[in-house]
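From the methods appendix. Each design record in this collection lists the tokenized structure first, followed by the designed amino acid sequence. Records were kept in a plain field format so they could be parsed without special tools. The example shown here is representative of the layout used throughout.

RECORD:
FOLD TOKENS (157 positions):
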């Protein structure tokens, strides 16, 4: 199963980094370049078992479910419904305290795995998927890192 990984360090404590990563609505749209629309389904706050609707800026739609939610350490999700070409899609985000140059902060690691369908297309589509998804996730984690330093985002916590 192909995997895409992106990493960033942010100069905020893990609790803050985690909360920024789990924003929804207008505050999330302010920083997340991947999504066009996102909301929790039948829930007021994220948590294990909660479903989320996401429409990407490129038009793809997905319903995912939190498979884990361990504030402020990690969060995981799996696709419940999504684009026809994914038979499996999931991701996990980890937040680890890390001081750099005397500045307390958080090392963030975002990992995504996927399985393409139909199976005969995987030898080519897996490589394409890793490149395309890799670019998206790298841009997304860099936008997240900027958001963790943006007073307009932090003030909404």
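DESIGN:
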């Amino acid at each position: 199963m192909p995997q895409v990984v992106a990493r960033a360090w942010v100069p905020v404590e893990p609790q803050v980094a985690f909360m920024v990563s789990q924003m929804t609505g207008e505050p999330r749209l302010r920083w997340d370049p991947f999504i066009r629309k996102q909301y929790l389904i039948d829930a007021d706050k994220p948590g294990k078992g909660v479903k989320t609707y996401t429409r990407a800026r490129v038009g793809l739609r997905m319903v995912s479910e939190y498979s884990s939610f361990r504030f402020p350490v990690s969060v995981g999700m799996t696709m419940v419904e999504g684009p026809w070409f994914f038979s499996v899609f999931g991701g996990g985000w980890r937040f680890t305290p890390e001081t750099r140059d005397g500045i307390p902060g958080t090392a963030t690691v975002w990992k995504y795995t996927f399985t393409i369908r139909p199976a005969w297309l995987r030898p080519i589509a897996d490589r394409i998927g890793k490149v395309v998804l890799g670019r998206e996730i790298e841009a997304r984690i860099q936008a997240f890192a900027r958001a963790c330093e943006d007073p307009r985002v932090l003030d909404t916590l």
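APPENDIX NOTE: The mean pLDDT is 96.
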